[in-house]
């Protein structure tokens, strides 16, 4: 089954069939950091607690965004809380991240962003200057993504809570008819393409915390993905089965989630996944796998019928155009 | 100008004209608890920082929900973060509050709730039992409000942060054509009606904290307001200028905000505003004014042409029907 792959540049992973996994159960007695890390414990919370309690078809689909139908209109709704330490880091900051992260979840659902809401939890004593800087970052990111902030809320919590600020953004989008994307549409024989080098955001954050005594020139890859998705849907349309941005938990967690949703297994060749040398170096020293490190501007695209060469050309072109 | 008012039962406040207030400026150097309290400092943050930075028409309107137009559809989008200590209290809990609060913001915009998103920030070490209880409260409140939870997110922060949990809910609604509601539609001669006795939610929370050494039988009034608004729009339709739920900052803050938006002043007769004796008693001991205490199931309705007697009958009827 596994065909010969054409080397590092192709970024191709393969899909084979498997049995459908059982829904994970939530059996822990207390919440631990791992429940928020995007891996197995998070899945157990979503599949074992939230989805059954809310009996929601949209939640059960476990996509990046929920579906809402209004007067025949196919809308997508997605929400994300951002808790980042430190608040700013090489390549971005929490405000920019909050806008891009939510716009990207819409993009992954094949939805053009229409509007955002912004809910802030601020820590008592936060310098107004820090807030101003993040408000400006949010405004700039929203302008770049072409989306308006239409509603907001601010709460303040006592000193020592909230790490400066937590940001919750929710995005409303209109699903694009060119794409028929779903996490359960993957079939054996399809290919997975990663849209660029991985692990940069998470590595930049870890380095910025300064706890590791490491110094490397790695910037977060945070950026809005809708323009790229828009172009991809134009180029490939229905040939694309699914898109997923590889945030928390990295590319590995995305592949795990999609394997579960579609009842398929995936063959990943480490050498085919592009990793920036500085990221690879930091990961080696820290003993972590870049496949599990967060990205904020990369996605896995799952294409059935599109030819290998065409997809490669598409992403090479995007890499060239990227100014950031 | 001030007419004779017909006593406590009428719950009538009056509106007179005034000059338009200037936009508040944000000049503080640090964030304080007051920036989250819903009063003047919050207004300075919204009018002085957020609205100019985001240059958003929807935010500038300062309504309970933002407007989004999609293919001719008139949608409303609103977001709220809930930070409550303790997490549960007589009459409700943070989960129920988060659903009702957001559904109610949609209702105040004259919008029928379509979908909710739920974003949780959990504290490391939170007992799973507490989370389960809140997830069930959220599910029950969503069922009662007739709205589906279509997307979610969970983050976990280190022990000692987030007070157990913070909940951010965002609501999408479809504006009802029967209502033409706006915070700047108030005109001199109109009347303000409060939909019931005030100050219960905030008083219940203060008592539940147990810091005051006071014991009184006060329950939060948390409930979804859309059914009542639905009936009101049926009964009064275009005669209603504006609806606003009197949450953070209480009825007084709502009246202040609306005065600013519509360039009117209001005459409030204390004796005409219904207050439960237990709330009045607690407020007197604590030296606070129930007009500034939060509600979660009461709103101010601003009616131009509807007759006094009709509106009174409407709200009396609602009070009778309330099972909670």
Summarize the structure.
The structure is a homodimer of 324-residue chains. With 324 residues, chain A is α+β, with helices and mostly antiparallel strands. Chain A contains nine helices and twelve strands.
Characterize the structure shown.
The structure is a homodimer of 324-residue chains. Chain A is of the alpha+beta class. Chain A has two domains: 7-24 and 179-323, Alpha-Beta Complex (Phosphoribosyl-aminoimidazole Synthetase, Chain A, domain 2), CATH 3.90.650; 64-175, 60s Ribosomal Protein L30, Chain: A, CATH 3.30.1330. Chain A has helices at residues 40-54, 57-60, 94-108, 128-145, 200-208, 226-236, 250-262, 277-286, 308-321, and strands at residues 12-17, 66-70, 73-82, 88-89, 92-93, 111-123, 148-157, 165-175, 191-194, 240-245, 264-267, 299-303. A five-stranded antiparallel beta sheet of chain A has the order 10-12-9-1-11, sandwiched between helices. Chain A is globular, with a radius of gyration of 19 Å. At the A-B interface, helix 1, helix 2, strand 2, strand 3 and strand 6 of A face helix 1, helix 2, strand 2, strand 3 and strand 6 of B.
């Amino acid at each position: 089954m596994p065909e010969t792959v054409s080397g590092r540049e192709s970024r191709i992973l393969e899909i084979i069939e498997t049995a459908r996994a059982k829904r994970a159960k939530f059996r822990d007695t207390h919440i631990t950091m791992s429940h928020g890390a995007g891996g197995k414990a998070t899945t157990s919370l979503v599949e074992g607690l939230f989805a059954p309690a809310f009996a929601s078809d949209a939640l059960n689909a476990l996509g990046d965004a929920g579906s809402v139908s209004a007067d025949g209109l196919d809308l997508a709704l997605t929400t994300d809380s951002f808790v980042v330490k430190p608040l700013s880091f090489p390549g971005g900051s929490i405000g920019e991240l909050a806008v891009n992260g939510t716009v990207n979840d819409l993009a992954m659902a094949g939805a053009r962003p229409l509007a955002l809401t912004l809910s802030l939890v601020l820590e008592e004593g936060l310098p107004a200057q820090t807030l101003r800087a993040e408000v400006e970052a949010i405004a700039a990111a929203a302008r770049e993504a072409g989306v308006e902030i239409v509603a907001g809320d601010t709460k303040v919590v006592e000193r020592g809570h909230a790490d400066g600020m937590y940001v919750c953004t929710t995005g409303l989008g209109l699903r694009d008819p060119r794409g028929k994307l779903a996490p359960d549409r993957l079939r054996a024989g399809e290919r997975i393409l990663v849209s660029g080098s991985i692990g940069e955001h998470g590595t930049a954050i870890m380095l910025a915390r300064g706890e590791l005594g490491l110094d490397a020139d790695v910037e977060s890859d945070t950026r809005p993905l809708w323009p790229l998705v828009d172009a991809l849907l134009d180029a490939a349309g229905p040939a694309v089965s699914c898109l997923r941005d590889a945030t928390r938990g990295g590319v590995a967690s995305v592949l795990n989630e999609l394997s579960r949703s579609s009842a398929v297994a995936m063959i990943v060749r480490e050498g085919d996944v592009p990793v920036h040398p500085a990221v690879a170096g930091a990961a080696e020293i820290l003993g972590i796998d870049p496949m599990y490190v967060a990205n904020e501007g990369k996605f896995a695209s799952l294409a059935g019928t599109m030819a290998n060469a065409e997809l490669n050309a598409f992403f090479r072109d995007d890499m060239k155009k990227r100014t950031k």
